[in-house]
Please model this.
Amino acid sequence: MDLLSDRLKRLSFSQTFVMSNKAREMKAEGFDVISLTLGEPDFDVPESIKKAAFKAIEENFSHYSPVPGFLELREAICLKLKRDNNLDFKPTQICVSNGAKQSIINVLAALLNEGDEVILPAPYWVSYDEMVKMMDGKSVFIKTDYTTDFKMTAEQLENAITPKTKAILYSSPCNPSGSYYTYEELKSLAKVIAKYPHVTVISDEIYEFINYETKHTSIAQFPEIKEQVAVINGMSKAYAMTGWRIGYSACPDWLAKACEKIQGQMTSGANTIAQQAAITALQTNPAEFHFMIEAFQKRRDLVFDLLKKIKGFKIFLPKSAFYFFPDISYYIGKTLDGIKINNSDDFAMFLLEKANVATVGGVSFGSPECLRFSYATSEKNLIEAMKRIRELLNNIEVN
Model:
C-alpha cells in the first residue's frame, strides 16, 4: 500500500541541497571539496543585530507573537519600504514569515486553485516550480538566455498570459542569473500586467541590496498595478541572517489578510528573538552593511577574469546577487573522460567527482544548458575552485 500523497510524488528534491549534501558527504569521506552550491553569505551577523537578539532574550521575548509578526517589526518594514523603495504600505499589509520561502508559499496558497497557471521566466530559482506544484498549480515557462541578460520582454509576457494565469513569479535581482530588471523594463512589464487584473505579480526582491550598478527598483512602484503586486523580501542576504529565518510579504489588503489566515493555520508567528533582531537591522542605515556588497563585487570581478580562461564557457557578467550562470552548451551531448554529459546536471556531477568542486546544474533552474555557482565564499576558495575546473577542462579529452 502506498501511503504517500500524489502531491509529494510530484515534487523533486532541491537540486541545490542535493549537491550541497553530496559535497558534505564527500568531505566527510576525506575529499577536499570546495562547495559553491548554497546562496549563503559567508559573513557573520553584524554585532548590532546580535546584541538586539541578546537583549530580546533578556527581556523575555519568548512567547507567541501575533501571526503576522510584532507590530513594531511590521512598522519597521513599512519604513524600510518607504526609505529604500519609495513604496507605501501599512503594517496591516505586512506578513512576517519563517523566511521569504514561506512568504512565497503563503501567497501561492492564497491565490491558486488546481490547474491555475503561474508564469515563471526561466531561469528561475529552483523552488519556484516546486512551490507551484505543491499548490496544485501549473508552471508556464518563458525561456530567456544570456544574449538577453536572462530577462523576459513585455511581448513574451503578454504572449504567455491566458485566462488561467493567476500569477507571475520572478526574482529581481535574479537567482540564478545575477540579472536585474531596470525601471524602464519593469515599466513595460507593468503596462502589460495592468491589462489583466486577474493576474498577481509575486516579486521576489530578497537580493535588492546586492546590486553593483544601481539602486534597486521594484515593480510595486507603478500605481496602475499596485493592487496586483506582492513584494517578497527578507533578512537572509543583505544582513547575513540566513539561519534566523525571517522573511516578509507586503501585499494589497485583500491578499495580506489571506496570507495571515494561511500562516495562522500553518506556523503562526515567526521566531520572536529573530523578529526583535530584525527590527534593529531594518532601522540601521543600509550603508553600514555595505562592506559585504563591496566584498561580493570584488569576488565577482576576480571570478569573471578567471572564468575567461576556462574552455567552453560562455560567460555573462552578473550585475547583482552573488552567482555566476555560465552557458556550458559546448559540453552537452559530449563525452568527457568516458562520461556522457546529457545536461548541466551531469556536468555539475562531473566537476564534483573529477575536480572536487560542487556547483549546481541548471536543469532545475529551467536552463539545462547553464551551470550555477555561488561566489559567496572566500577569495582563496574561489581561486582554487576556478583553478581546478580550468585544469580539468582545458586538459581533458572531449569527444
About this structure: The chain has two domains: 6-44+289-395, 47-285.
